[in-house]
Amino acid sequence: MENRRDFFKKLGVLGVSAIATKLVGETQLQALNEIATATETDAHFKLAPLPYAYDALEPFIDKETMEIHYSKHHQGYVNNLNKAIENSSVIDFKISDIQNCQNIDASAPLAIRNNLGGHVNHTLFWSLLKPNKEAKPNMPVGRLADAMKKDFNSFDELKKQFTEKATKQFGSGWCWLIEQNGKLIITSTPNQDNPAMKVSEQQGKIILGIDVWEHAYYLKYQNKRGDYITNWWNVVNWDKAEELYSSK
Ligand code: MN
């Protein structure tokens, strides 16, 4: 109980440390905050509309998976986050105090860490996907494309390493492309953690992320996680990734 009280007390300060700000970037920090606050009503988090139809990512990600993933899984994280807040024995904290993933350290109540992560990660994930009906080659753009060449020699090499990391993530979790001290890095997190959290092994500015929980692919790809990842590359929203990369 003391830990939890300390956690919220720390959050009350909400002054993000200079180091964390440098790692993640001020704009991304605002963006992560907005994911939480823009959908907040009456001290509750709310699921924002999906930015496209359930079948928009066919044939790469199927309609049924999208519908269940968004309306059941993501909604579930939002509901459970609200429950975790209601059930908290701490009465003197504001919802704005928990909106920021960067405040998630080892003392954070697990129900809040998992469900806030689930909400933020899925909101990012939807925004980092876009339809590709003509199955056109889907390539990174702008400054991000240049940075990939610099840090990985080529997009193909980055794709290879990212696919391998995502495929090998043990159990449920996420694979990420982040910027850390000016360099692109591929990393992964278990469960619903993300690289903006203090608990993450590698911290940095999130540029791209893939959900490798079985619920993200099992209906269409069964146990073939590699096939899901191969298809996912076709619907990555590179404009959004470039926007995240170029944000200060
Ligand atoms: Mn998911």
Short description:
By secondary structure, the chain is mainly alpha-helical.
Description:
By secondary structure, this protein is mostly helical. Helix 4 (63-87) packs antiparallel against helix 5 (110-127), helix 6 (142-152) packs across helix 10 (238-246) and helix 7 packs antiparallel against helix 9 (225-232). It is built from 10 helices and 5 strands; from the N terminus they run αααββααααβββααα. The model is unreliable at 8-23, 37-41 and 90-97 (pLDDT under 50). It is 48% helix and 11% strand. Residues 69, 73, 122, 211, 213, 215-216 line the site of manganese (II) ion.
Topology:
Elements (H helix, E strand, L loop, with lengths): L1 H12 L4 H7 L1 H12 L2 E2 L2 E2 L17 H25 L22 H18 L14 H11 L2 H14 L4 E8 L2 E8 L14 E7 L6 H4 L3 H8 L5 H9 L2
Antiparallel strand pairs: 1-2, 3-4, 3-5
Helix pairs in contact: 4-5, 6-10, 7-9
The structure holds manganese (II) ion.
Manganese (II) ion binds next to helix 4.
